[in-house]
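Quick one: structure for this chain?
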Amino acid sequence: MGSLEVIRLAAAVGYTIPESELDDYATLLEQAKVAFDTVEAMDDYQPTPDTSVTPRNNVYLPPKDENPLGAWAYRCTCTHSNPRSALLRGKTLCLKDNIAMADVPCLLGTDTFTGWVPKTDATVVTRILEHGGTITGKSVCENLSRGAVSNTAASGAVDNPYARGYSAGGSSSGTAALVASGSVDMGIGCDQGGSIRIPAALCGLYGFKATTGLVPYTGIASNDASTDNVGPITKTALDCATLLEAIAGVDGLDDRQIAGVHFERDVPKYADILRSMDLKAGLKGIRIGILREGVELSTIDSGVKEKFLAAVKVLESLGAEVKDISVPIHTQSRAIYAVVSKMGNHMGMLGRATGRRGVALTDLFEKKSMPYTQDTIDKMNVVSKDGLMAGELGWTSYPLAYPKAVNLTRKLRDMYDNALQEVDYLVMPTTATPSNPYPLPNATLLEHTNASIGKLENTCSFNGSGHPALAMPIGFVSSKEDSKIKVPASLQIVGRYWDEAGILKIAHAWEHAQDWRQF
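Got it. Here's what it folds into:
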Protein backbone atom coordinates (compact mmCIF):
# COMPACT_ATOMS: atom_id res chain seq x y z
CA MET A 1 0.00 0.00 0.00
CA GLY A 2 1.44 3.34 -1.03
CA SER A 3 2.08 6.27 1.29
CA LEU A 4 -0.57 8.45 -0.35
CA GLU A 5 -3.29 5.88 0.36
CA VAL A 6 -2.14 5.60 3.99
CA ILE A 7 -2.23 9.40 4.33
CA ARG A 8 -5.74 9.50 2.78
CA LEU A 9 -7.11 6.88 5.17
CA ALA A 10 -5.63 8.66 8.18
CA ALA A 11 -6.99 12.02 7.06
CA ALA A 12 -10.48 10.50 6.73
CA VAL A 13 -10.49 9.90 10.51
CA GLY A 14 -8.85 13.23 11.32
CA TYR A 15 -5.31 12.00 11.85
CA THR A 16 -1.99 13.12 10.36
CA ILE A 17 0.55 10.31 10.48
CA PRO A 18 4.14 11.24 11.32
CA GLU A 19 6.29 10.61 8.25
CA SER A 20 8.51 8.27 10.26
CA GLU A 21 5.50 5.92 10.84
CA LEU A 22 4.13 5.80 7.32
CA ASP A 23 5.89 2.58 6.34
CA ASP A 24 4.80 0.80 9.52
CA TYR A 25 1.17 1.80 9.02
CA ALA A 26 1.40 0.68 5.40
CA THR A 27 2.48 -2.76 6.66
CA LEU A 28 -0.38 -2.90 9.19
CA LEU A 29 -2.95 -1.88 6.61
CA GLU A 30 -1.65 -4.48 4.17
CA GLN A 31 -2.29 -7.09 6.87
CA ALA A 32 -5.84 -5.80 7.26
CA LYS A 33 -6.27 -5.90 3.50
CA VAL A 34 -5.39 -9.59 3.48
CA ALA A 35 -8.27 -10.26 5.88
CA PHE A 36 -10.69 -8.16 3.82
CA ASP A 37 -9.66 -9.90 0.60
CA THR A 38 -9.97 -13.34 2.24
CA VAL A 39 -13.52 -12.74 3.45
CA GLU A 40 -14.56 -11.10 0.19
CA ALA A 41 -13.44 -14.20 -1.72
CA MET A 42 -15.39 -16.61 0.52
CA ASP A 43 -18.91 -17.85 -0.24
CA ASP A 44 -21.71 -16.11 1.64
CA TYR A 45 -23.69 -18.02 4.27
CA GLN A 46 -27.43 -17.35 4.26
CA PRO A 47 -30.19 -19.85 5.12
CA THR A 48 -31.39 -21.60 1.95
CA PRO A 49 -35.11 -22.38 1.82
CA ASP A 50 -36.36 -25.67 0.44
CA THR A 51 -38.36 -24.36 -2.49
CA SER A 52 -39.24 -27.90 -3.57
CA VAL A 53 -41.91 -27.88 -0.84
CA THR A 54 -42.66 -24.16 -1.13
CA PRO A 55 -42.44 -23.50 -4.89
CA ARG A 56 -42.73 -19.90 -6.05
CA ASN A 57 -45.27 -20.07 -8.84
CA ASN A 58 -46.55 -17.45 -11.27
CA VAL A 59 -44.06 -14.74 -10.30
CA TYR A 60 -44.76 -11.59 -12.31
CA LEU A 61 -44.93 -7.82 -12.23
CA PRO A 62 -48.65 -6.95 -12.26
CA PRO A 63 -49.91 -4.64 -15.01
CA LYS A 64 -51.82 -1.50 -14.05
CA ASP A 65 -55.22 -3.03 -14.75
CA GLU A 66 -54.48 -5.66 -12.07
CA ASN A 67 -53.14 -3.06 -9.66
CA PRO A 68 -55.77 -0.30 -9.32
CA LEU A 69 -54.46 1.00 -5.99
CA GLY A 70 -50.81 0.77 -7.01
CA ALA A 71 -50.30 -1.49 -3.99
CA TRP A 72 -48.81 -4.64 -5.54
CA ALA A 73 -45.05 -4.69 -6.02
CA TYR A 74 -44.85 -8.27 -7.37
CA ARG A 75 -47.31 -11.14 -7.61
CA CYS A 76 -46.69 -14.82 -6.95
CA THR A 77 -48.42 -17.85 -5.53
CA CYS A 78 -46.65 -19.81 -2.82
CA THR A 79 -47.96 -22.50 -0.50
CA HIS A 80 -46.34 -25.32 1.47
CA SER A 81 -46.96 -28.82 0.15
CA ASN A 82 -46.97 -30.27 3.67
CA PRO A 83 -47.53 -27.53 6.30
CA ARG A 84 -47.03 -28.42 9.94
CA SER A 85 -50.29 -26.75 11.01
CA ALA A 86 -53.55 -25.45 9.57
CA LEU A 87 -53.51 -22.21 11.55
CA LEU A 88 -53.47 -20.09 8.36
CA ARG A 89 -55.17 -22.57 6.04
CA GLY A 90 -57.29 -20.80 3.46
CA LYS A 91 -55.76 -17.39 4.22
CA THR A 92 -54.10 -15.31 1.51
CA LEU A 93 -51.35 -12.94 2.56
CA CYS A 94 -49.10 -10.22 1.16
CA LEU A 95 -45.67 -9.22 2.42
CA LYS A 96 -44.25 -5.73 2.66
CA ASP A 97 -41.67 -5.46 -0.10
CA ASN A 98 -38.65 -5.15 2.18
CA ILE A 99 -39.16 -8.76 3.31
CA ALA A 100 -36.91 -11.31 1.60
CA MET A 101 -38.64 -14.12 -0.23
CA ALA A 102 -36.28 -16.26 -2.27
CA ASP A 103 -36.72 -16.13 -6.05
CA VAL A 104 -39.24 -13.25 -5.87
CA PRO A 105 -37.85 -9.82 -6.84
CA CYS A 106 -37.70 -7.29 -4.01
CA LEU A 107 -38.04 -3.67 -5.14
CA LEU A 108 -37.83 -1.99 -1.73
CA GLY A 109 -39.93 0.83 -3.15
CA THR A 110 -36.95 2.30 -4.98
CA ASP A 111 -35.14 2.66 -8.27
CA THR A 112 -31.87 3.67 -6.59
CA PHE A 113 -30.91 0.09 -7.43
CA THR A 114 -32.62 -2.72 -9.35
CA GLY A 115 -32.38 -6.44 -9.81
CA TRP A 116 -32.40 -7.69 -6.22
CA VAL A 117 -33.84 -11.20 -6.09
CA PRO A 118 -33.29 -12.49 -2.55
CA LYS A 119 -31.69 -15.88 -1.98
CA THR A 120 -33.25 -16.51 1.41
CA ASP A 121 -36.65 -16.41 3.10
CA ALA A 122 -37.37 -14.19 6.05
CA THR A 123 -38.42 -16.15 9.13
CA VAL A 124 -41.95 -14.74 8.87
CA VAL A 125 -42.19 -16.14 5.33
CA THR A 126 -41.13 -19.58 6.51
CA ARG A 127 -43.63 -19.54 9.36
CA ILE A 128 -46.56 -18.32 7.28
CA LEU A 129 -46.00 -21.15 4.83
CA GLU A 130 -45.43 -23.75 7.56
CA HIS A 131 -48.78 -22.78 9.09
CA GLY A 132 -50.65 -23.27 5.83
CA GLY A 133 -50.92 -19.70 4.56
CA THR A 134 -50.78 -18.78 0.89
CA ILE A 135 -48.53 -15.87 -0.06
CA THR A 136 -49.92 -14.14 -3.14
CA GLY A 137 -47.35 -11.40 -3.54
CA LYS A 138 -45.24 -8.53 -2.28
CA SER A 139 -46.87 -5.21 -1.38
CA VAL A 140 -45.40 -1.82 -2.22
CA CYS A 141 -43.45 -0.06 0.51
CA GLU A 142 -42.28 3.52 0.56
CA ASN A 143 -38.95 4.44 -1.04
CA LEU A 144 -36.22 2.48 0.78
CA SER A 145 -38.90 1.72 3.38
CA ARG A 146 -38.88 5.27 4.71
CA GLY A 147 -41.83 7.62 4.98
CA ALA A 148 -45.31 7.85 6.49
CA VAL A 149 -47.07 9.08 3.31
CA SER A 150 -47.88 6.68 0.47
CA ASN A 151 -46.54 8.65 -2.50
CA THR A 152 -42.78 7.97 -2.52
CA ALA A 153 -42.39 4.49 -4.05
CA ALA A 154 -40.64 4.45 -7.39
CA SER A 155 -43.55 2.44 -8.80
CA GLY A 156 -45.95 5.27 -7.97
CA ALA A 157 -48.35 6.35 -5.23
CA VAL A 158 -50.49 3.89 -3.28
CA ASP A 159 -54.11 5.02 -2.93
CA ASN A 160 -56.14 4.70 0.24
CA PRO A 161 -59.04 2.32 -0.57
CA TYR A 162 -61.44 4.72 1.15
CA ALA A 163 -60.39 7.77 -0.87
CA ARG A 164 -58.41 7.81 -4.09
CA GLY A 165 -55.61 10.35 -3.99
CA TYR A 166 -55.40 10.06 -0.20
CA SER A 167 -52.51 8.51 1.69
CA ALA A 168 -52.59 4.89 2.80
CA GLY A 169 -49.85 5.72 5.31
CA GLY A 170 -46.34 4.37 5.29
CA SER A 171 -44.08 2.76 5.02
CA SER A 172 -46.21 -0.43 4.89
CA SER A 173 -48.60 1.37 2.54
CA GLY A 174 -49.24 -1.43 0.06
CA THR A 175 -49.96 -4.02 2.73
CA ALA A 176 -52.65 -1.86 4.33
CA ALA A 177 -54.24 -0.96 1.00
CA LEU A 178 -54.41 -4.58 -0.14
CA VAL A 179 -55.88 -5.85 3.13
CA ALA A 180 -58.42 -3.01 3.39
CA SER A 181 -59.54 -3.48 -0.22
CA GLY A 182 -60.02 -7.22 0.25
CA SER A 183 -57.30 -8.16 -2.23
CA VAL A 184 -55.81 -10.42 0.47
CA ASP A 185 -57.09 -11.71 3.80
CA MET A 186 -54.19 -10.40 5.86
CA GLY A 187 -50.72 -8.98 5.49
CA ILE A 188 -47.34 -8.40 7.05
CA GLY A 189 -45.93 -4.93 7.66
CA CYS A 190 -42.73 -3.65 9.21
CA ASP A 191 -42.61 -0.90 11.80
CA GLN A 192 -39.65 1.41 12.44
CA GLY A 193 -41.62 4.32 13.92
CA GLY A 194 -45.22 3.43 13.32
CA SER A 195 -45.05 1.87 9.88
CA ILE A 196 -47.48 -0.92 10.76
CA ARG A 197 -49.84 1.14 12.90
CA ILE A 198 -50.00 4.30 10.77
CA PRO A 199 -51.14 2.52 7.56
CA ALA A 200 -53.52 0.38 9.63
CA ALA A 201 -54.95 3.52 11.24
CA LEU A 202 -55.44 5.33 7.94
CA CYS A 203 -57.00 2.30 6.24
CA GLY A 204 -59.38 1.08 8.98
CA LEU A 205 -57.39 -1.98 10.06
CA TYR A 206 -55.75 -3.69 13.01
CA GLY A 207 -51.97 -3.25 13.04
CA PHE A 208 -49.84 -4.75 15.80
CA LYS A 209 -46.30 -3.82 16.79
CA ALA A 210 -45.71 -6.48 19.40
CA THR A 211 -43.20 -6.32 22.24
CA THR A 212 -39.70 -5.72 20.91
CA GLY A 213 -38.31 -8.95 19.49
CA LEU A 214 -41.43 -11.11 19.83
CA VAL A 215 -41.60 -11.52 16.05
CA PRO A 216 -38.18 -12.20 14.48
CA TYR A 217 -36.97 -9.64 11.94
CA THR A 218 -34.56 -12.09 10.29
CA GLY A 219 -34.37 -11.71 6.52
CA ILE A 220 -35.88 -8.22 6.32
CA ALA A 221 -34.12 -5.11 5.03
CA SER A 222 -33.19 -2.82 7.91
CA ASN A 223 -31.81 0.66 8.39
CA ASP A 224 -31.55 0.60 12.18
CA ALA A 225 -32.01 -2.58 14.20
CA SER A 226 -32.94 -0.76 17.41
CA THR A 227 -36.31 0.33 15.99
CA ASP A 228 -37.14 -2.66 13.74
CA ASN A 229 -40.40 -4.54 14.20
CA VAL A 230 -42.49 -6.78 11.97
CA GLY A 231 -46.11 -7.78 12.51
CA PRO A 232 -49.70 -8.31 11.34
CA ILE A 233 -52.04 -5.97 9.49
CA THR A 234 -55.56 -7.44 9.43
CA LYS A 235 -59.29 -6.68 9.21
CA THR A 236 -60.24 -8.11 12.63
CA ALA A 237 -58.74 -8.61 16.06
CA LEU A 238 -59.14 -12.38 15.69
CA ASP A 239 -57.23 -12.38 12.41
CA CYS A 240 -54.54 -10.27 14.08
CA ALA A 241 -54.28 -12.77 16.92
CA THR A 242 -54.10 -15.69 14.49
CA LEU A 243 -51.34 -14.20 12.37
CA LEU A 244 -49.34 -13.06 15.40
CA GLU A 245 -49.52 -16.58 16.80
CA ALA A 246 -48.15 -17.97 13.52
CA ILE A 247 -45.14 -15.66 13.24
CA ALA A 248 -44.09 -15.04 16.87
CA GLY A 249 -41.31 -16.71 18.82
CA VAL A 250 -37.55 -17.22 18.96
CA ASP A 251 -35.88 -18.18 15.68
CA GLY A 252 -32.31 -18.48 17.01
CA LEU A 253 -31.04 -15.96 14.45
CA ASP A 254 -32.39 -12.51 15.31
CA ASP A 255 -30.32 -10.75 17.96
CA ARG A 256 -33.18 -8.26 18.52
CA GLN A 257 -34.98 -11.03 20.41
CA ILE A 258 -34.43 -9.99 24.00
CA ALA A 259 -34.90 -11.98 27.21
CA GLY A 260 -38.54 -12.91 27.63
CA VAL A 261 -39.33 -13.78 24.00
CA HIS A 262 -41.31 -17.02 23.88
CA PHE A 263 -39.88 -20.08 22.23
CA GLU A 264 -42.11 -21.13 19.34
CA ARG A 265 -43.64 -23.97 21.33
CA ASP A 266 -44.55 -21.55 24.12
CA VAL A 267 -46.15 -18.81 22.03
CA PRO A 268 -49.60 -18.15 23.51
CA LYS A 269 -52.57 -19.42 21.54
CA TYR A 270 -53.75 -15.90 20.93
CA ALA A 271 -56.62 -16.88 18.64
CA ASP A 272 -57.99 -19.48 21.09
CA ILE A 273 -57.69 -16.95 23.90
CA LEU A 274 -60.01 -14.59 22.00
CA ARG A 275 -62.40 -17.36 21.02
CA SER A 276 -62.70 -18.47 24.64
CA MET A 277 -63.50 -14.98 25.98
CA ASP A 278 -66.72 -14.50 27.89
CA LEU A 279 -67.80 -11.46 25.92
CA LYS A 280 -70.86 -11.01 28.12
CA ALA A 281 -68.50 -10.26 31.01
CA GLY A 282 -67.05 -7.35 29.07
CA LEU A 283 -63.94 -5.70 30.47
CA LYS A 284 -64.79 -5.69 34.15
CA GLY A 285 -61.73 -5.18 36.35
CA ILE A 286 -59.58 -3.85 33.51
CA ARG A 287 -57.93 -0.48 34.29
CA ILE A 288 -57.38 1.75 31.28
CA GLY A 289 -55.51 5.04 31.30
CA ILE A 290 -56.12 7.77 28.72
CA LEU A 291 -52.64 9.08 28.04
CA ARG A 292 -53.13 12.82 28.48
CA GLU A 293 -50.09 13.81 26.43
CA GLY A 294 -51.30 11.53 23.63
CA VAL A 295 -54.61 13.37 23.36
CA GLU A 296 -53.59 16.96 24.08
CA LEU A 297 -51.51 17.28 20.93
CA SER A 298 -51.24 20.57 19.09
CA THR A 299 -51.70 18.69 15.83
CA ILE A 300 -54.80 16.71 16.80
CA ASP A 301 -57.77 16.76 14.46
CA SER A 302 -60.99 17.64 16.28
CA GLY A 303 -62.87 14.80 14.57
CA VAL A 304 -60.22 12.26 15.58
CA LYS A 305 -60.31 13.49 19.19
CA GLU A 306 -64.10 13.34 19.34
CA LYS A 307 -64.17 9.85 17.84
CA PHE A 308 -61.43 8.65 20.20
CA LEU A 309 -63.25 9.88 23.30
CA ALA A 310 -66.45 8.24 22.09
CA ALA A 311 -64.57 4.96 21.58
CA VAL A 312 -63.27 5.18 25.15
CA LYS A 313 -66.89 5.51 26.32
CA VAL A 314 -67.53 2.12 24.72
CA LEU A 315 -64.69 0.66 26.80
CA GLU A 316 -66.32 2.15 29.90
CA SER A 317 -69.68 0.70 28.92
CA LEU A 318 -67.99 -2.71 28.80
CA GLY A 319 -66.98 -2.32 32.43
CA ALA A 320 -63.43 -1.02 32.12
CA GLU A 321 -62.25 1.45 34.74
CA VAL A 322 -61.01 4.48 32.81
CA LYS A 323 -59.02 7.44 34.10
CA ASP A 324 -56.64 10.08 32.79
CA ILE A 325 -52.96 9.44 33.29
CA SER A 326 -49.89 11.53 32.54
CA VAL A 327 -46.46 10.54 31.23
CA PRO A 328 -44.81 13.95 30.66
CA ILE A 329 -41.81 12.57 28.75
CA HIS A 330 -44.21 11.42 26.02
CA THR A 331 -44.12 15.01 24.70
CA GLN A 332 -40.35 14.63 24.15
CA SER A 333 -40.46 11.10 22.80
CA ARG A 334 -40.62 12.24 19.18
CA ALA A 335 -37.33 14.14 19.60
CA ILE A 336 -35.69 11.15 21.31
CA TYR A 337 -36.86 8.84 18.55
CA ALA A 338 -35.72 11.30 15.86
CA VAL A 339 -32.16 11.30 17.17
CA VAL A 340 -31.98 7.50 17.43
CA SER A 341 -33.65 7.05 14.08
CA LYS A 342 -31.80 9.69 12.06
CA MET A 343 -28.36 8.89 13.45
CA GLY A 344 -28.93 5.13 13.44
CA ASN A 345 -30.53 5.09 9.98
CA HIS A 346 -27.66 7.22 8.72
CA MET A 347 -25.14 4.49 9.53
CA GLY A 348 -27.44 1.79 8.19
CA MET A 349 -28.04 3.58 4.91
CA LEU A 350 -24.31 4.05 4.45
CA GLY A 351 -23.80 0.32 5.00
CA ARG A 352 -21.91 0.93 8.23
CA ALA A 353 -24.23 -0.64 10.79
CA THR A 354 -22.18 -3.01 12.96
CA GLY A 355 -22.34 -5.01 16.17
CA ARG A 356 -24.85 -7.51 14.82
CA ARG A 357 -25.23 -11.28 15.09
CA GLY A 358 -27.71 -12.77 12.65
CA VAL A 359 -28.42 -13.00 8.95
CA ALA A 360 -27.00 -10.15 6.85
CA LEU A 361 -28.54 -9.58 3.44
CA THR A 362 -25.21 -9.37 1.62
CA ASP A 363 -26.85 -9.59 -1.80
CA LEU A 364 -28.87 -6.45 -1.00
CA PHE A 365 -25.74 -4.51 -0.05
CA GLU A 366 -24.13 -5.68 -3.27
CA LYS A 367 -27.02 -4.24 -5.30
CA LYS A 368 -26.89 -0.93 -3.45
CA SER A 369 -23.37 -0.29 -4.86
CA MET A 370 -22.24 1.99 -2.06
CA PRO A 371 -20.90 4.61 -1.64
CA TYR A 372 -23.86 6.48 -3.10
CA THR A 373 -23.54 8.68 -6.15
CA GLN A 374 -25.36 11.90 -7.00
CA ASP A 375 -27.66 9.97 -9.34
CA THR A 376 -28.53 7.48 -6.60
CA ILE A 377 -29.35 10.14 -4.03
CA ASP A 378 -31.41 12.07 -6.58
CA LYS A 379 -33.72 9.04 -6.77
CA MET A 380 -34.28 8.88 -2.99
CA ASN A 381 -37.33 10.45 -1.39
CA VAL A 382 -36.98 13.52 0.80
CA VAL A 383 -37.19 11.41 3.98
CA SER A 384 -34.08 9.44 3.00
CA LYS A 385 -32.19 12.51 1.79
CA ASP A 386 -33.05 14.43 4.94
CA GLY A 387 -32.09 11.40 7.03
CA LEU A 388 -28.66 11.17 5.43
CA MET A 389 -27.94 14.86 5.99
CA ALA A 390 -29.51 15.06 9.46
CA GLY A 391 -27.57 11.96 10.49
CA GLU A 392 -24.35 13.51 9.27
CA LEU A 393 -25.20 16.68 11.20
CA GLY A 394 -25.76 14.61 14.32
CA TRP A 395 -22.57 12.58 14.09
CA THR A 396 -20.36 15.56 13.22
CA SER A 397 -21.90 18.30 15.39
CA TYR A 398 -23.77 16.47 18.18
CA PRO A 399 -21.66 13.38 18.96
CA LEU A 400 -23.26 12.94 22.40
CA ALA A 401 -26.82 13.06 21.09
CA TYR A 402 -26.98 9.41 20.08
CA PRO A 403 -25.71 7.80 23.31
CA LYS A 404 -27.86 10.18 25.34
CA ALA A 405 -30.92 9.34 23.23
CA VAL A 406 -30.23 5.63 23.78
CA ASN A 407 -30.27 6.22 27.53
CA LEU A 408 -33.38 8.39 27.33
CA THR A 409 -35.09 5.60 25.42
CA ARG A 410 -34.63 3.43 28.50
CA LYS A 411 -36.11 6.27 30.54
CA LEU A 412 -39.10 6.27 28.21
CA ARG A 413 -39.62 2.59 28.93
CA ASP A 414 -39.34 3.16 32.68
CA MET A 415 -41.83 6.04 32.63
CA TYR A 416 -44.39 4.06 30.64
CA ASP A 417 -43.80 1.09 32.94
CA ASN A 418 -44.52 3.32 35.93
CA ALA A 419 -47.79 4.41 34.35
CA LEU A 420 -48.62 0.77 33.62
CA GLN A 421 -48.41 0.05 37.33
CA GLU A 422 -51.29 2.47 37.92
CA VAL A 423 -53.34 1.08 35.04
CA ASP A 424 -53.27 -2.08 32.95
CA TYR A 425 -53.29 -0.38 29.54
CA LEU A 426 -52.78 3.04 27.97
CA VAL A 427 -54.96 4.34 25.16
CA MET A 428 -54.62 7.30 22.81
CA PRO A 429 -55.39 8.10 19.17
CA THR A 430 -53.06 6.11 16.94
CA THR A 431 -52.59 9.12 14.68
CA ALA A 432 -53.51 12.68 15.57
CA THR A 433 -54.70 13.32 12.03
CA PRO A 434 -56.53 11.03 9.60
CA SER A 435 -55.60 10.30 6.02
CA ASN A 436 -55.00 13.35 3.87
CA PRO A 437 -54.30 13.84 0.15
CA TYR A 438 -50.76 12.80 -0.71
CA PRO A 439 -48.59 15.47 -2.38
CA LEU A 440 -48.24 15.43 -6.14
CA PRO A 441 -44.82 14.74 -7.70
CA ASN A 442 -44.19 18.44 -8.29
CA ALA A 443 -44.76 19.35 -4.62
CA THR A 444 -42.03 21.12 -2.69
CA LEU A 445 -39.85 19.30 -0.18
CA LEU A 446 -41.70 20.87 2.74
CA GLU A 447 -45.08 19.99 1.25
CA HIS A 448 -43.92 16.38 1.14
CA THR A 449 -42.70 16.38 4.74
CA ASN A 450 -45.69 18.35 6.07
CA ALA A 451 -48.03 15.66 4.72
CA SER A 452 -46.89 13.39 7.57
CA ILE A 453 -47.76 15.86 10.36
CA GLY A 454 -49.85 14.18 13.02
CA LYS A 455 -48.89 10.65 12.07
CA LEU A 456 -45.90 9.64 14.25
CA GLU A 457 -46.49 11.58 17.47
CA ASN A 458 -48.12 8.65 19.29
CA THR A 459 -46.45 5.73 17.53
CA CYS A 460 -42.68 6.24 17.39
CA SER A 461 -42.14 6.34 21.16
CA PHE A 462 -43.17 2.70 21.52
CA ASN A 463 -40.64 1.58 18.92
CA GLY A 464 -38.09 3.06 21.29
CA SER A 465 -39.60 1.84 24.56
CA GLY A 466 -40.42 -1.58 23.11
CA HIS A 467 -43.96 -1.80 24.51
CA PRO A 468 -46.60 -3.69 22.52
CA ALA A 469 -48.95 -1.31 20.71
CA LEU A 470 -52.03 -2.12 18.64
CA ALA A 471 -53.89 0.19 16.26
CA MET A 472 -57.60 -0.56 15.89
CA PRO A 473 -60.35 1.13 13.83
CA ILE A 474 -63.03 3.13 15.67
CA GLY A 475 -65.09 4.78 12.94
CA PHE A 476 -64.92 7.41 10.25
CA VAL A 477 -64.19 11.13 10.40
CA SER A 478 -64.49 13.86 7.80
CA SER A 479 -61.46 14.72 5.77
CA LYS A 480 -60.15 18.19 6.59
CA GLU A 481 -59.72 18.87 2.89
CA ASP A 482 -63.21 17.69 1.86
CA SER A 483 -65.93 17.14 4.44
CA LYS A 484 -67.80 14.85 2.04
CA ILE A 485 -64.93 12.35 2.17
CA LYS A 486 -64.92 10.05 5.19
CA VAL A 487 -61.72 8.33 6.28
CA PRO A 488 -60.97 5.99 9.21
CA ALA A 489 -59.95 7.01 12.73
CA SER A 490 -57.97 4.73 15.04
CA LEU A 491 -57.32 4.04 18.72
CA GLN A 492 -53.99 2.70 19.98
CA ILE A 493 -53.76 0.32 22.93
CA VAL A 494 -50.40 0.00 24.69
CA GLY A 495 -49.64 -2.63 27.31
CA ARG A 496 -46.90 -4.12 29.42
CA TYR A 497 -44.16 -6.22 27.86
CA TRP A 498 -45.46 -9.60 26.62
CA ASP A 499 -49.14 -8.77 27.26
CA GLU A 500 -50.20 -9.06 23.63
CA ALA A 501 -53.08 -11.31 24.66
CA GLY A 502 -54.55 -8.68 26.99
CA ILE A 503 -54.35 -5.98 24.32
CA LEU A 504 -56.04 -8.22 21.76
CA LYS A 505 -58.80 -9.08 24.24
CA ILE A 506 -59.66 -5.40 24.70
CA ALA A 507 -59.78 -4.87 20.93
CA HIS A 508 -61.87 -8.01 20.44
CA ALA A 509 -64.35 -6.97 23.14
CA TRP A 510 -64.74 -3.49 21.62
CA GLU A 511 -65.12 -4.96 18.13
CA HIS A 512 -67.78 -7.41 19.35
CA ALA A 513 -69.72 -4.60 21.04
CA GLN A 514 -69.47 -2.07 18.23
CA ASP A 515 -69.24 -2.24 14.43
CA TRP A 516 -66.59 0.39 13.79
CA ARG A 517 -67.97 1.15 10.34
CA GLN A 518 -71.25 2.25 11.91
CA PHE A 519 -69.71 4.04 14.89
